[in-house]
Specification:
Blueprint: H1 2-9, E1 10-15, E2 18-23, E3 28-35, H2 43-53, E4 59-64, H3 71-86, H4 95-104, H5 109-116, E5 125-131, H6 134-148, H7 161-170, H8 175-181, H9 187-205
Antiparallel strand pairs: 1-2, 2-3, 3-5, 4-5
């Protein structure tokens, strides 16, 4: 069900290795990417430094990519966050935090940050940038890349075997749940779909 809806309201654009989507209902562009092998040391300072160096016309959210189950995970969370504000059903006061809540499938900010937010020891990060036009989000990504000193790497968003066990644990996904949706032995798709369903369920509770 969620796949049909997102396909109707999103227009997908691939530029190089960077994934962009246009959200027709809010008239916003969404960019999803990541960076790998970082030395963050202090997560709060890391985020503050980047926010200070980037445009105030966009909003940015950071995630521990070891708990991201695909780009669909992030854009579906972003979609629901934007719709929650449109429908006045938002849990938090900012779009950034709302997206973090949906991506973590939690309705408590502290829990969301603990599960999927950046930690001091995080090495691979995922980023969502939302702006009114492509030039805004492209410029912001360039500023982030220059600040970090790394090129974007979308591979950190992919759901790998290394991630599966950790994601299943943090998102409370049981073997029975996986078995009920698994198709042709494709466990990655099953885990991703379960998380998307959890995000959808959170939207009905908010």
């Amino acid at each position: 069900m969620y796949h049909k809806r997102t396909h109707k309201i999103f227009s997908k654009i691939i530029v190089g290795e960077i994934l962009k989507k246009y959200f027709k209902e809010s008239k916003k562009f969404i960019l999803i990417t990541g960076f790998k092998n970082l030395k963050i040391c202090n997560a709060k300072d890391f985020i503050k430094k980047i926010r200070e160096k980037t445009s105030q016309k966009v909003w940015i959210q950071f995630f521990d990519s070891s708990l991201i189950a695909s780009w669909e995970h992030l854009f579906f969370a972003t979609l629901n966050a934007q719709l929650s504000f449109k429908n006045n059903s938002n849990i938090s006061k900012s779009m950034e935090i709302e997206t973090l809540l949906y991506a973590s499938t939690q309705n408590q900010i502290d829990k969301a940050i603990k599960i999927i937010g950046l930690k001091d020891e995080t090495e691979d990060i995922a980023i969502v940038i939302v702006g009114k036009n492509e030039s805004q989000i492209d410029e912001t990504l360039l500023e982030i890349s220059e600040s970090i000193g790394k090129e974007p790497d979308d591979s950190v968003i992919d759901l790998s075997k290394r991630k599966l066990k950790k994601i299943a644990k943090e998102f409370n996904i049981s073997e029975n749940e996986i078995s009920s949706v698994i198709k042709k032995g494709y466990i990655n798709g099953a885990v991703r779909d379960i998380i998307l369903e959890k995000i959808a369920l959170l939207s009905t509770k908010s």
